[in-house]
Amino acid sequence: MATVVLLHPFPQDSAFWHEVAEAVRAAGHEVLTPDLPGFGARGVEPGWTMAGEADRLAGQMPAGSAVVGLSMGGYLALALLAAHPDRVGSLVLADTRASGEAPEGMDARRETAEMLRRDGSAAFLDGFVPRALGPDPDPQVVARLRAIAERQPAEAMADATMAIATRSDHTALLPAIGVPTLVVVGEHDAVTPPAVHMEMAAAIPGATLAIIGGAGHMTALEQPGEFADLLLAHIA
To answer: At what angle do helices 50-58 and 72-83 cross, to 10 degrees?
Structure first.
């Protein structure tokens, strides 16, 4: 049995993983679902970085864990693998990318962070939620994604936006990954499209690519049963 570490996306908290975590626990595995700084039960930590959070997380998980990161969680998973490879026994990268932020992306992130601090999150979420899901989302999934996001402080979202913007580029790490790796993407992911994941999977030795039909960027929330089945088969 494995210890499975589920790293949540922006702007969610560990509750994002509820269905997947239940399925993994039912299969007999231990599950850790940490909240990233400012999200869920964790207090706001201005100025946090992916590298710093990876160091903190490494001290709270056993060596050889199965690490699963979706979107922002994927950036953290790669930072963890880069700095603490002994912690990672297998890897799932979902709806994410290995590259760092482009200069124009950095400017857009700064503007978003400033807007969140100035105006709160309501207007931001109006644009974010539809873009994060597939073209014909279940209304219950829409409501749940929005409900989890709305309970996160706008300040936490702003801090996370900058942590994402300042993440390291881990493209060069991909060919050196020596653990079993599954790359997952939604068929209609408009944030990190399937082509990005095809390239990423091709760069990782022996990686498996899975495309979840009908889903957008939040695959584990949109299709939790299929995501859990892929994860369990990967760590079996």
So the answer is: 60
| 86 pLDDT above the threshold of 90 | yes
Per the document, the length of the chain is 236
Model pLDDT, residue 1: 86
Residues 21 and 19: their CA atoms lie apart, in Å, by: 5
What pTM, to 2 d.p., does this model score? 0.97
Domain boundaries, the chain: 3-235
* 52-68 tens-digit pLDDT: 999 999 999 999 999 99
DSSP assignment of 50-83, as one string? HHHHHHHHHTTS-TTEEEEEETHHHHHHHHHHHH
CATH number of 3-235: 3.40.50.1820
The rounded distance, in Å, linking the Cα atoms of 121 and 115 is 8
